[in-house]
């Protein structure tokens, strides 16, 4: 296989309000008043020697959600949990990590027991030392991962395996990362919540949900320009309609036109 196989593993679309609860809605419906509309799309990357996930879904952390959805989505591509070799986390929010652990047998277990989990070194350290969550479920989850997962720590600029480059950019979280997939002429960019939706490339904005809104806006503008100039296809984790798209032209005031790439099947893109 000389080119990557890249598909979004769509888990659903959710209305997320100030209570941070993920309430399932139809993909075409608006969110509740004052809430965000967020889809969940872990990305499956198949290379010659590696089968990779970029982020790991919502898992059990939504209303009426389950890690089983991620497992079922993999099965549609003739893959099981043991086939995943590497998982890369763009950042360490639970809607990007939830599928790593499950309670299918009534107790905590790793969903992908043979996978290496790649995380930013400093962000993991901060999470373990400073997690102030008042939810026992989240505390149990992260400390279980710390004890049981095959953790590998990424530096601010890293290339942990051939074809995958990671760059720390911060903004959304202190140590948010951008993931670049390169294989021959095929190149992809996954920037977590910095470019989480197609709408992010169509306007210039600062978002209150980012740790540093102004820094995130600046990074977003730089990444949009890079994607357009270098021809990266963008993988948008929270996009409900077209989670994989290309930039086809510049609009006004730093905005870009897009060309969607639909792939909720086993089609190679």
Helices and strands, with pairings:
Blueprint: E1 5-8, E2 12-16, E3 22-25, E4 36-40, E5 43-46, E6 51-54, H1 68-75, E7 86-88, H2 94-97, E8 101-102, E9 109-110, E10 116-120, H3 121-130, H4 136-148, E11 150-154, E12 157-161, E13 164-168, E14 177-183, E15 186-190, H5 213-230, E16 233-235, E17 244-250, E18 256-261
Parallel strand pairs: 6-7, 7-10, 10-11, 15-16
Antiparallel strand pairs: 1-5, 2-3, 2-4, 5-6, 8-9, 12-13, 13-14, 14-15, 16-17, 17-18
Tell me what the structure shows.
The protein is of the alpha+beta class and 269 residues long. It has helices at 68-75, 94-97, 121-130, 136-148, 213-230; strands at 5-8, 12-16, 22-25, 36-40, 43-46, 51-54, 86-88, 101-102, 109-110, 116-120, 150-154, 157-161, 164-168, 177-183, 186-190, 233-235, 244-250, 256-261. The protein has one domain: Ribonuclease Z/Hydroxyacylglutathione hydrolase-like (Metallo-beta-lactamase, Chain A), CATH 3.60.15.10.
> Helix-strand pattern, N to C?
EEEEEEHEHEEEHHEEEEEHEEE
Helical proportion?
Answer: 10-25%
CATH architecture: 4-Layer Sandwich
Mean pLDDT: 92
Give the percentage of residues in beta strands.
25-35%
Low-confidence runs of at least 5 consecutive residues: 263-269
Largest sheet: 7 strands, mixed
